[in-house]
Amino acid sequence: MTFLEDLLNDLPELVDRMRRHDVRHVSLKNGAGALALTLTPAPTSNPEQTPPISYPAKAEDTPVPSPEMGVFRSNGLDETHPVRSGEIVGFVEAGPLRLPVTATADGTLGPALVGDGGVVGYHDVLFRIHPDG
Amino acid sequence: MREPAVSVPRRVLIANRGEIALRITRACRLLGLHSIGIHSEADASLAHLRLVDETICIGPAAASGSYLDAARILRAAELTNADIIHPGYGFLSENADFAEAVEQSGRTLAGPTAAIMRLMGDKISAKQQMRRSGVPCLPGTEDALPTDLSEAQTICDAIGYPLIVKAAGGGGGRGMRVVMTAADLRDAIETAREEAGRAFGNPSVYAERFLQHPRHIEIQVLADRQGNAVWLGARDCSIQRRHQKLVEEAPATGIDPLAIAELGERCANACTLMGYTGAGTFEFLYEDGAFSFIEMNTRLQVEHPVTEMTTGIDIVREQLLIAMGEPLSFTQADIRTQGHAIECRINAEDPESFRPAPGKVQSWRAPGGPGVRIDTHLYDGYVVPPNYDSLIAKLIVHGTDRTDALNRMHAALSEMQITGIATTTPLHLRLMNEPGVREGGVSVHYLEALMRKSAP
């Protein structure tokens, strides 16, 4: 298959991943050609209109902190998503940076404690991970 | 005094911590402003965070990654849609680069412009500005001392000895050397330059006459964006140790009120001439009946409450109104000072060695009664972190006269209880009974001499 055919085959998955991670621009290049892909930004909620969601914490849960002060971007994960330590579970936009929020333990990821587009502080707890078993 | 017309609520980010953050929060609430409290990871339990409308953790405990990090504070302002930033005192409150960044972000700093901060932050340009405004200065160099030591020697010989060599961009005793005789000058200049370059990134030094037993007297000013400026009386802050004030009072006892009034007028005029806005303090040395300008603090002072107690003017409220573009709600003719006020800085420090004493406050019992005010963020179980300044409370009293104020302060100090950590309270109690303090008018060297005398 040609580079273009490969790309066209992978495009739906690529676009889906870009939307999930709120990535707006991608540039790909190899010897056969180049592609620059730009998505129209999906509408985001107003930070002020996104109240924090509170859930009772359990002692055995492991908190997942925000890497920085910024705006939380959800990864669209289900409330009972199984995660492995180090897996990206969301993002925080800190100025021009888009920083990954990573799972701090293996287990079941609880619901996000902050709504998508919500303002978060440095090391604010964004999720809790419940240990499996 | 008329009530201000506050038609549009404004969002104020309080870029500080501790007692002053609480003080600013109270002023915001008084004016019905939306308050935003920032904090470091070590400060999540600060008292004012329960009272503000919004909070955000901006960084780690170290001040360099939180309260001193201009980029983080500006990002917090952006995230919370703040349109006024009140810097309090310390941290970034006199940082012209920060003020400029605030201006460029389209926000308002509760203070003067970056250009004014730069003008007054450089001690040489500040003195030049004061001379132009008729504010008295010490005899000394007009500009930085030349790098050629022989030329510098000629200039300093003309000023006369003793003199003091000071860093142009400095403060707090760094880059500063007292020179008693001409023979000591060259070493002093070289050491001061080296120290100033390291501490302030600016090796320029200047020289001025050294006063041997001066008092520290300062004038509080307020200036609005419409060109109105007033002075709010004088404070005496002579009881200090290593340039850190410990006790402040208003008015300045034993100085002719007419001389203070003349100085105050000159300070207010200087504000108008340079286009100063907000609260500010002109600091002077006073010796043999003459005032000599040292520097201007382009921010709120720790000791502002003694002026508030004697004038009845809420300085922080006025700062916020000025930042909102309101004209001053009073004129110089409306300002009257009444009685006498004293402030004791209660620091979490060993009262003998002054070593910081962070830790958990087991119990806190505030003093009370007529004329007693306490500005503090303390509560039972509060943990004083080791990362910041050791000021934990300001005890302020107001009496009919100085003796009454001293008696009230002694009674209030005796009543106040802070257990779990060492504080400077025992030293203050002792000071209130010291003959020199009772009499008044001590010099800036008084406390250190007293401590030396009582050292084992």
TrEMBL record, chain A:
The lineage of its organism: Bacteria, Pseudomonadati, Pseudomonadota, Alphaproteobacteria, Acetobacterales. This is Lipoyl-binding domain-containing protein. InterPro entries: Single_hybrid_motif. Residues 39-79 are annotated as: Disordered. SUPFAM superfamilies: Single hybrid motif. Gene3D superfamilies: 2.40.50.100.
Automatic annotation (TrEMBL), chain B:
One of its GO terms (biological process) is fatty acid biosynthetic process. Its EC number is 6.3.4.14. Pathway: Lipid metabolism; malonyl-CoA biosynthesis; malonyl-CoA from acetyl-CoA: step 1/1. SUPFAM superfamilies: Glutathione synthetase ATP-binding domain-like, PreATP-grasp domain, Rudiment single hybrid motif. Pfam families: Biotin_carb_C (PF02785), Biotin_carb_N (PF00289), CPSase_L_D2 (PF02786). Residues 8-452 form the Biotin carboxylation domain. This is Biotin carboxylase. It comes from Gluconobacter kanchanaburiensis NBRC 103587.
